[in-house]
Amino acid sequence: MQKPVIIIGAGLSGLHAASLLTEQGIACKVIEARDRLGGRILSASVPNQENLGRFDLGPTWFWPQYEPKIAGFVSKLGLETFVQQNDGDLLVERFQRKPPERCLMQENVHERGVRITGGMKSLIDALAKTIPSSIIELETRVSKIFLDQAGEITVEVEKAEGERKQVTAAHVIMALPPRLVASHIEFSPALPAELMADITGKPTWMGSQAKAVAVYERPFWRDSGLSGLVLSSAGPLQEIYDASPIDGAGALFGFFGITSEVRQEMGQEKIAELVTNQLVKLFGRDAENPLAILYKDWSNDAETAVLEDSSPFKNYASYGQPPISGLWEEKLIFSGTETNAQFSGHLEGALHSAETAVARIIALRK
Fold first, then answer.
1. Which parts of the sequence belong to the Amine oxidase domain (predicted)?
2. What is the dihedral of CA 132, 138, 141, 146, to 10 degrees?
3. Alpha helix (H) ranges present in 149-259?
């Protein structure tokens, strides 16, 4: 019986790798610690009001003019898209006790990002349909990977209810943030020191970030000629964008300027209060009573980030393929957006890395 390729992580990169391997007739299995697909792609709805739409708490846009792979991928899957709404004036908030400044937006419309109708989860849902559901195991955590003297790989996993089992593998694709590999998975024999230094030094994209989305019945700010775009040095949100669906509800989302440590101390209720107060200051009383504030702090998501990710990173140069050598060279393959140097941190990078991983496996099988 053919040993499968084990793919650890069911985000965009892991699912794309599984789809490509399935196309090639190569047996594979996807193991995911979460209870859902998508990884850092997360589209949420207002509880009990799904009719308002889905709102992205992870990746939100892509840029077809610069990212042809994701553009072609979305088209191939038959997904509808729309251009990010930026029409109208920009607000600049420089001081907490002074009103924001209103500025004319000077931009090239062709530089705008593109969003997927129904949120980025629509991408994951469509991709999942290209993969047999039987090969995906959710709520399953990889704890150990063994390589014996004969070159046989055994992957030990633990289910949510505590059951442990071992699975043999032909190769293992690590389609998750490299720091999670270093922190959460035991290897026997141990990974080379150079490889461990590399993967522990690769910051997790979005690992220090949090996003909040305030949902309203309609995008009222457009009535007064505002784009919804805000740049703020007064916070708590430092960048705000119109996150409304193509029609219907209105929404504003923002990235935080306060650190993950401060966010943890405040708690979600206090953060929601501060966000609402800021939006009222910026957009007036119509912003006072959002239908909901959706919130996701990626820095305290144990399936995304480790403690070292809590501080914003600057070491972009660390991104790219880890240097695998020795016994593990033909056994482990790293995937995920951090392992693609050209498009690191983007959906484009996740797709490129998956294709690189699958090409490597095909080459090893020849």
1. 109-362
2. -10
3. 178-184, 193-200
DSSP string, 222-235: GGGTEEEEEEESSS
Tens digits of residue pLDDT in 28-72? 999 999 999 999 999 999 999 999 999 999 999 999 999 999 999
Start-to-end Cα distance in the chain: 18
**Band of residue 107 on the pLDDT scale cut at 50, 70, 90:** low
pLDDT in tens, 224-255: 999 999 999 998 999 999 999 998 899 999 99
- Token pair, residue 318, equals 């660390």
- Contact assessment for residue 244 and residue 250, using Cβ atoms and an 8 Å cutoff: yes
Burial of 307 (0-12, 13-18, 19+ CB in 10 A): exposed
CB 303 within 8 A of CB 40: no
pLDDT at residue 317, rounded to an integer: 73
Residue 135 burial (C-beta neighbours within 10 Å; 0-12, 13-18, 19+): middle
Whether residue 218 contacts residue 249, with contact meaning beta carbons closer than 8 Å, is answered with yes
Instruction: Retrieve residue 139's tokens.
Output: 């709520």
Q: In sequence order, which residues have a C-beta less than 8 Å from that of residue 366 and are 6 or more positions away?
A: none
Whether the Cβ atoms of residue 174 and residue 144 lie closer than 8 Å to each other: no
Please name the helix (run of DSSP H) or strand (run of DSSP E) that holds residue 43, with its range, or none.
strand 43-44
Look up residue 185 and give its amino acid: I
CA dist 183 → 103, 260, 320 (Å): 46, 20, 19
Spell out the domains of the chain, with CATH numbers in brackets. 1-42+120-202+315-365 (3.50.50.60)
Reading the block at residue 133, the tokens are 């559901």
Nearest CA to 212 out of 279, 296, 140 is that of 296
pLDDT tens by residue, 313-360? 666 678 999 999 999 999 999 999 999 999 999 999 999 999 999 999
